[in-house]
Each structure stands twice: as structure tokens, then as C-alpha cells.
From TrEMBL:
It comes from the Bacteria. The keyword Signal applies. Keywords: Signal. InterPro entries: Thioredoxin-like_sf, Thioredoxin_domain. The keyword Signal applies. Gene3D superfamilies: Glutaredoxin. Residues 1-21 form the signal peptide. This is TlpA family protein disulfide reductase. Residues 22-189 form the Thioredoxin domain.
Amino acid sequence: MMRRSLLVTVLLCASLASAHAEIIGANAPRAVTEDEMKASLGEVDLVGANGAPLDLRALMANGRPTLVSLWAYWCPNCLAEMKGFKAVAAACPERWNIVFVSARASDYPKDAAKFKTYSLPWKIFRVGDSTKTDVAKAKSARAFYGATADGGVVTPLHYLIGASGRVDAIVSGRLNFAEPQRLAAFCAD
């Protein structure tokens, strides 16, 4: 039932899906594979504003579905999603684990400042500094960001993870939870 609900949510929320795309939504030539992106969730180090680590693996294993969203203050679609996330916060803030991550670690201070203005119940994190000294961590971060062939990122990028901890979908593009039927699907058991 949970898996069916998640699938309905993904289908309702995805902007445009290409029949041949590995990732739902905006299609961009990537330097990493879908499998590498999925695996990165168990390997990437995330830290919060005070430098405290977030154990994403433990969060993904707590029995609730998880949404990890790469977000940026300069991204028009990220900003447009905030109305929908406010609707989620009002309707079902505890239904999902929701984690926002700065799409570029170097932008974290600006992302955190902008994110704070929305007064959402969730926090925004960044990829940790271990990527500067650990080649394996840098590779994981590159996959987590869904690095494009030219080394950029496409935002927003969302990982939808089932209650079992398995990545069910990756959505590249805007999710719109502000529409009542999409909000209902996202909040459904």
C-alpha cells in the first residue's frame, strides 16, 4: 500500500516524464548514473548549520518515507516549490522525513538564510567538508548532486525514498504540492 501511494505521488508530482529517461522529469546529460545517485544516499556526509552531522542512513531507516530535496536560493523552481512545502507542513509535517540540502555547498550560507524565511519545520543541510580530502566522499557527493556532463547541477532534484529505505524515484524538476490532489496523494498513508 505504501509503495502504491508513493508511486501515485511520483506520477502526480513529476512535471514531464520521458519514456526513456532514467530519472523522472527534466532530462539533462549526466556524468553519473542513476545507480550511482541512489547509492550516494548511503555514502554522502551531510551537516547542518552548526556543523552537526545528519545521519541520513538512520533517518531513511526509521520506518517513514523520506524526501531529500536539493535546493538553491537562486533556483526559480526551488523557490516556486515553497508554497507547496508550506501546504505539506500544514497538512502532514510528520508523515515524511523531509531533508533539504544546499545544491552547492559553497552556497550554503545564502541557501540557509533564504530557506529560514519560509519558516518550515524542516532544516537545510549541506554536503560535508570530507569531500575536500576524501576522494571516495567527493565521488559520492558528485553522484548525490546528480552532476551533469558539464559539471553542473540541475535543481531542484528530489530523491523519494520508501519507508524501507529504498530509493523509489528520483525527480529532476519542480514538485507542486500546492495543488490539492497532489498534496492529498503526498500525505496519504
